[in-house]
Amino acid sequence: MKARLTIAMDGPAGSGKSTIAQRLAEELDYLYLNSGSMYRAMTLLSLRKGEDPTDVCTLTELAKRYRIDFSDNGKITLLNGEDVSDALRTPEIDRAITDIAKIPEVRHEMVKQQRRIGENGGIIVEGRDVTTVVFPDADLKFYISASVEERAKRRFTEQKAKGIETTLEQVEEEIRIRDEIDESREHSPLRTAEDAIVVDTTSMTIDEAVNFVLNRVEES
To answer: CA separation (Å) from 170 to 31, 49, 52, 158, 183?
Structure first.
């Protein structure tokens, strides 16, 4: 395995890609970048400021003015230096993020920030368009998938542990809607890169999935 790889990882919500990417980064001592957290931070910013999530001009200006960074191996998301990690995983953000994430001008600014963070390699980047748009020349690409039902169970368990009131049926419906929006988006839709290694985690434990990916990295 050559040093300082750029590893890109895409997949739908709840597929396990965040956990796999974070564990992989710890194993390799790489920087972990969760691109979805960047869009969540932008969504949080728009909600705080009371901005219309469809106001392209205002949101694009915010994206240009605010810097997003990561610390503690990606566990902490910083918005202009403020730790906003705990505020990003809420149903309000889940519902509003699709409007923000589909704005091409905002995506353009987020891509610039992602490339800034990953310009020196030695990084695991995960999201929905990092293998196809952000880092199309990544050394290794993975597409992490799982059934809708399994992904809904994982997200429901995660939200329940945080005391968020919801139902499994509601979470599954939200995931189906998010999938449809991500896959049909005009700009940077979620899709599998031709040279990506597909990993279906439906019947895998996290350890099994991490080991599978790690073996592929070590073979490179």
So the answer is: 34, 28, 25, 14, 20
Can you give the pLDDT at residue 15?
A: 93
Contact 149, 205 (CB under 8 A): no
As a whole-number percent, the residues of the chain with pLDDT over 70 amount to 99
The three-state secondary structure class of 140 is: strand
Distance spanning both ends of the chain, measured CA to CA: 5
List C-alpha distances in Å: 156 to 91, 168, 183. 11, 6, 22
CB count within 10 Å of CB 111 equals: 18
pLDDT at 216 over 90: yes
Of 135, 149, 138, the residue nearest 14 (C-alpha): 149
Handedness of CA 57, 62, 63, 65 (dihedral sign): positive
Question: What is the SS3 assignment for 37?
Answer: helix
**All domains of the chain, ordered by start, with CATH?**
6-209 (3.40.50.300)
Helix (H/G/I), strand (E/B), else coil: 70: strand
53-66 residue pLDDT tens: 888 999 999 999 99
Distance set, CA 87 to CA 129, 154, 161, 189 (Å): 23, 19, 15, 26
pLDDT of residue 2: 58
